[in-house]
Design a protein that fits this description.
By secondary structure, the chain is α/β, with parallel strands linked by helices. Keywords: Fatty acid biosynthesis, Fatty acid metabolism, Hydrolase, Lipid biosynthesis, Lipid metabolism.
């Protein structure tokens, strides 16, 4: 029995990366990465974010400590394993979700699954650089399997988020291209029909860069009976990598959760 429990904990820790554990934290912030991304960027938030928050970053298969695992091909498989990993750590404390781009959709479906199967919802849902899940607007992403290496480099440079010196590094490109292809496949296959009624009830906050090509963030109001707030910050699709924007987001999340928790009583 102990071996089984240990194996489950080890598995869950592979899926959820918490670099800075805070036993006295009031909230748990679960962060979901963008297509091609890993867990490290968000996991590092735990060091600088307010001590009220303990940060757990989702780590998808095929990267970091899960490098030997097959990439997921179905977004619902991803959601199921995240829910399994989350359940042991969200029983005793309030929690919130933050997702960037693809991560917003994984976070959204995870919230739906938790509500439908376990009667649990995040205290607040923070969306970043993502149109509403049922929006007619679809981000135009090329078929990466049909692109040459030079074309992939051009795409990465145009889309932002990856330093040029890394894009020019052949070893980095060899490593990241399969991950990006797998995640783009998930993005392209994701479909969510317009809801007849709001499936969620918590407030949603959308962050977006002023120069982002994403449209229809207003559509997120259709998936919750709670409030929707939209904040535009300077920058492109990866505006959050700007230190000033990152600090704004972390401070906003802390204040927002403090206020949301008061509303619960």
């Amino acid at each position: 029995m102990e071996k089984t429990d240990h194996a489950k904990r080890t598995r869950n820790e592979k899926i959820l990366n918490c670099l800075f554990q805070k036993p006295n934290a009031v909230f748990k912030l679960i962060c979901f990465p963008w297509a091609g991304g890993g867990s490290i960027y968000f996991a590092k938030w735990g060091e600088t974010v307010n001590d009220l928050l303990e940060v757990h970053a989702v780590r998808l298969a095929g990267r970091e400590t899960r490098l030997q695992e097959q990439f997921a091909t179905d977004i619902y498989e991803i959601v199921d394993e995240i829910v399994t990993a989350l359940l042991p750590i969200i029983q005793d404390k309030q929690f919130a979700f933050f997702g960037h781009s693809l991560g917003s959709y994984i976070a959204f479906l995870t919230a739906l699954s938790l509500k439908e199967k376990h009667k649990m919802e995040p205290l607040h849902f923070f969306v970043s650089s993502a149109s509403a899940p049922h929006s007619k607007f679809q981000l135009q992403i090329p078929e990466l399997n049909k692109l040459s290496e030079d074309q992939i480099r051009h795409y990465l440079l145009h889309f932002g988020g990856t330093p040029k010196h890394l894009i020019d590094d052949q070893e980095f490109l060899n490593h990241c291209t399969p991950i990006l292809k797998a995640d783009v496949g998930i993005v392209k296959s994701f479909v969510f029909d317009p809801p007849s009624e709001a499936p969620l009830s918590q407030d949603i906050t959308c962050f977006i860069g002023s120069d982002d090509i994403i449209k229809d963030t207003e559509g997120w109001k259709d998936v919750t009976s709670g409030k929707l707030d939209i904040h535009m910050l300077p920058g492109d699709h990866f505006y959050l990598l700007n230190p000033d924007n990152e600090n704004f987001i972390k401070n906003y999340i802390t204040k927002c959760l403090e206020l949301s928790s008061l509303d619960c009583y």
